[in-house]
Amino acid sequence: MDKARINEILTPGDRDRNREREERVRAQFWRTVKRAARQVPFMEDVVAAYYCALDTRTPTRVRGILLAALAYFVLPIDFIPDFIFGLGFTDDMAVLTAAITALRSHITPAHRAAAREALSENS
After folding, report:
1. Long-range contacts made by residues 112-120, C-beta under 8 angstroms, separation at least 24?
2. Which region among 8-12, 31-35, 98-102 has the lowest average model confidence (pLDDT)?
3. Residue 116: pLDDT over 90
4. How many other CB atoms are found less than 10 A from the CB of residue 32?
5. What per-residue confidence (pLDDT) applies to 28?
6. Core-most of 12, 23, 69, 86, by most CB within 10 Å?
7. Are residues 72 and 78 in contact, defined by beta-carbon separation less than 8 angstroms?
8. Contact status, residue 72 vs residue 65, Cβ threshold 8 Å
9. Which 3 state secondary structure label does DSSP give 85?
10. Concatenated DSSP letters for 31-59?
11. Burial letters for 102-115: b for 16+ Cβ neighbours within 10 Å, e otherwise?
12. Please, is 118 exposed, middle or buried when counting C-beta atoms within 10 Å of its C-beta (0-12, 13-18, 19+)?
């Protein structure tokens, strides 16, 4: 997936768009995590990004970018459909890697601890 496409996906939306993304992410996140767990090697970072995106103390722009990346992750049909075994989550990983790398400083130790706990409970 090219950098221009990733930047387009990660563009934070307005308040209404971010609210839509947050609702979609909350509704589908854990189901998608379970489906993708074996294919996404940095799942702890993804879950920490989820907690960061839902944290009201996280700056609005950061939340918007993370919600955009997470919304793309939970969509079943995207650039490479998730049901294609071995390839389905590669585009999602590119988008998530870009967002997490750019915003790593906003993902706190508390977000990471919550991610570790959630993953240990859900495994």
Report:
1. 112/44, 112/48, 114/47, 114/48, 114/51, 115/44, 115/45, 115/47, 115/48, 115/50, 115/51, 116/44, 118/47, 119/43, 119/44, 119/47
2. 8-12
3. yes
4. 20
5. 93
6. 69
7. yes
8. no
9. coil
10. HHHHHHTTT-TTHHHHHHHHHHHH-TTS-
11. ebeebbeeebbebb
12. middle
Query: Position 103: which residue type?
Result: L
Look up the pTM and report it.
0.86
State which amino acid sits at residue 41. Answer: P
Locate 60 and state its tokens.
């609005």
Rg of the chain over all Cα atoms, to the nearest angstrom: 13
Q: Encoding tokens for residue 114?
A: 């919550």
How far is it, in rounded angstroms, from Cα 42 to Cα 36? 11
120 residue type, one letter: S
